[in-house]
Design brief:
25% helix; 14 helices; alpha+beta; 7-stranded antiparallel beta sheet; globular; 6-stranded antiparallel beta sheet
Length: 698
């Protein structure tokens, strides 16, 4: 689409009762990011109340009509995905604005490939709008959905706000508190006194449907409030003007007054697990608590698959927040959910029995998905998935969901399914990893909260089951049959470029890194995403082949992780020649102070870090600055200073450890060694560093 164009959704697809809107961008440095927001507007262009403003701290509408699903990695960056159940949008809502905002003075003009896409309920992409002229703005209206003659249409906007999120929100009628400074000081004092710990604040829900006053969120999730600068100029709210495709609309201008923005005020506290468990009443450690979902009786793969499917589907049906979170991405509407196992479906002379069925009812209509489950290292069977897809198409079902320990990659589906083009009904084939399920359960019960204590307990029991060694639901655990031959080929220098086994290793390395991000993000309650530095428009397969050739030459697997709230990007490198794993981070040197003062300050921050941390001084325009371990540098921080008075750009901190030799997740396995290396570096190095924006390498 071009800027200002509009299109009727029903002209593109018949399955538009539920749609997914994705906002995406890429960054040359790998560090660019933004937060999405959604506003529901009445015909006068204003929100009905502050509850109609959805953002990271208010991600789900009570009626399920809007759900922010968060970020997901793509081939060249990340996408923020939002699902809209258009059949559930209240009748007095005429427009749905989709926007995003940056923070810490960042601008959308610094990002590449800024875009919005829209897909129907089956997951088929319907439209794409690329914003080429974002410019020096801190907030951006990507597009809008709006009603016209009873149908929904989409308009490509691409309109920026120099005033940032505060100006955008005010223009659409969201209340911004005047007492921001007082709120910030009070919250900071309360946190210092221990009255409002960050974990508790993260578990607080979104505003009630009609609060007296709701603060606009800060431009980025942070414990402290952020002041939004006054705008130079900002456009007025976008009027709904019917246009033909290719036409543009006239826009007015306004001068909103931005105000200091505190952390969003909240109206209802949700339930999360306590940080410290209560002391057990057992007489000794040999007593084991009774569990809702026991695993001791599981003897075979079939037992594990049957039990895992039943456990997951039953909790999805009983905990609305959890069930909705897992099914929204598949295009399911918000409504009454029921789940079933071991269902028999007619299929010629031999009925088929999928592992499970999910049904959601809304306004008398049913949404149905068949579920095929695998546990342990068992792979999905293409003929089985194909059969379920054909049955779903014949019976008018909406989706087939596959669930296994494997992780699906962009451009590399786990199962290739043929689609009969003569069939009018489309079936969405979607994959879910057990690591995804565990991540979502962790986010809800440890950070975001659920509606009541019983739901929190159910999720806790589910999480205990999934993480038990005998459940078979452990996520990606095997680097594949090519792992050992590739390592041997690198060791004896016989691995040649173009070897397909190297591509397989690169793909599995990408799966492992994505799983590390899910696990770490669930534990921290923060966004953790792999960084992709591919050129814009690079095909994922081409990118992986290039990385495989690089592996053949250098013998090394490299990746980067961006962890929200940290002062840099965590780099992870596996050197298959030396058998060493390296975790590292680069941080900028403080802007103020003498060079020796900067070095001393860094060493003080790392007072409790492991003695074997390597510290290297990064010099402007030069390579190979002074370096040493903390053990040597603690008594002599001046050894980090360059001898030739070169300007210090920053420091690189690194930890090394031996990597496992086997391909799996056993005690001596490569996957476990990667998990342990990332955890040790993050816990003992990254968390010690100054997290202020000035310390980040941007």
């Amino acid at each position: 689409m071009v800027k200002g164009a509009n299109v009727e959704l029903t002209a593109l697809s018949e399955d538009v009762g539920s749609v997914m809107v994705s906002l995406g961008w890429s960054s040359p440095t790998g560090e660019g990011d933004a937060d999405v927001s959604v506003l529901l507007l009445t015909p006068d262009g204003k929100v009905r109340s502050d509850a109609d403003f959805y953002f990271y701290n208010n991600p789900v509408a009570a009626d399920g009509s809007v759900q922010l699903l968060g970020k997901t990695p793509t081939a060249d960056g990340s996408e923020d995905r939002i699902t809209f159940d258009l059949t559930a949008i209240p009748a007095d809502v005429e427009q749905i604005i989709v926007a995003a905002s940056r923070y810490n003075g960042a601008r959308f003009g610094d990002l590449d490939d800024v875009r919005v896409t829209l897909a129907d309920g089956s997951g088929e992409g319907l439209l794409r709008f690329s914003i080429e002229d974002a410019g020096a703005v801190g907030a951006l209206l990507f597009g809008e959905l709006y009603r016209r003659a009873g149908d929904w249409k989409f308009r490509a906007i691409g309109q920026g706000y120099e005033s940032g999120l505060a100006g955008l929100a005010q223009d659409f009628g969201v209340d911004v508190d005047d007492d921001a400074g007082e709120v910030e000081e009070a919250e900071a004092a309360a946190e210092e006194a221990g009255a409002v710990p960050p974990a508790e604040a993260a578990s607080i829900a979104a505003p009630a449907p009609a609060p007296a006053s709701t603060s606009v969120p800060p431009p980025a999730p942070a414990p402290a409030a952020t002041s939004v600068p006054a705008p130079a100029s900002a456009p007025a709210p976008v009027p709904v003007v019917e246009q033909g495709v290719g036409e543009t609309e006239a826009k007015g201008s306004a001068e909103p007054v931005a105000k200091a923005v505190p952390r969003p005020r909240t109206a209802k506290k949700k339930v999360t697990l306590p940080k410290v468990a209560k002391k057990p009443l057992a007489e000794n450690d040999s007593w084991r608590p009774a569990r809702l979902f026991p695993v001791s009786a599981l003897k075979s793969d079939r037992d594990r698959e049957t039990r895992a499917t039943s456990v997951l589907l039953s909790v999805m049906a009983q905990v609305p927040e959890f069930g909705r979170r897992l099914t929204a991405v598949f295009g399911a509407p918000a409504g009454r959910m029921e789940t079933f196992t071991e269902v028999s479906l007619p299929n010629g002379d031999s009925p088929r029995r999928p592992d499970g069925v999910i049904r959601v009812e809304r306004a008398g209509k049913l949404w149905t998905a068949l579920v095929e489950t695998k546990t342990n290292g068992n792979s999905l069977k293409p003929d089985q998935v194909q059969a379920y897809t054909d049955i779903a198409a014949r019976r008018g079902y909406e989706a087939v969901i596959t669930l296994s320990n494997d992780v699906e990659l962009d451009g590399s589906p786990l199962v290739d399914v043929k689609t009969d083009g003569r069939r009018k009904h489309k079936v969405a084939l979607r994959h879910l990893s057990w690591a995804d399920v565990t991540h979502q359960a962790q986010m809800l019960i440890r950070h975001e909260g659920v509606g009541n204590a019983a739901h929190a307990w159910l999720l806790q029991e589910l999480l205990h089951y999934l993480q038990h060694d005998n459940s078979g639901c452990h996520g990606f655990q095997n680097m594949g049959p090519a792992w050992v031959p590739v390592r041997n080929g690198i060791d004896d220098e016989t691995l040649c470029q173009g070897d397909k086994r190297a591509v397989e290793v690169v793909e599995n390395w990408e799966r492992l890194v994505r799983q590390v991000c899910l696990r770490l993000g669930g534990e921290l309650g923060q966004k953790v995403l792999p960084v992709q530095r591919a050129k814009r428009g690079t095909d994922p397969r081409v990118r992986r082949e290039a990385l495989a050739d690089q592996l053949c030459l250098a013998g090394r697997l490299d990746s980067e992780l961006r962890i929200e709230g940290t002062p840099g990007i965590l780099a992870l490198s596996a050197d298959l020649r030396t058998g060493k794993l390296r975790t590292s981070i680069e941080i900028d040197a403080p802007e103020q102070g003498y060079p020796l003062t900067r070095a001393k300050r860094l060493i003080r921050q790392l007072a409790d870090a492991p003695a074997d941390v390597h510290v290297e001084t990064l010099l402007v325009g030069q390579a190979g600055g002074p370096r040493g371990t903390l053990e040597r540098l603690r008594p002599e921080p001046g050894d980090l200073l360059p001898r030739n008075d070169a300007e210090i750009a920053g420091f690189r901190l690194s930890l090394f450890r031996s990597m496992g030799s086997s391909r799996g997740n056993a005690e001596s396995g490569f996957i476990r060694s990667v998990d342990e290396a990332v955890d040790r570096f993050h816990d003992h190095v990254v968390t010690r560093l100054d997290r202020s924006p000035a310390a980040a390498r941007r």
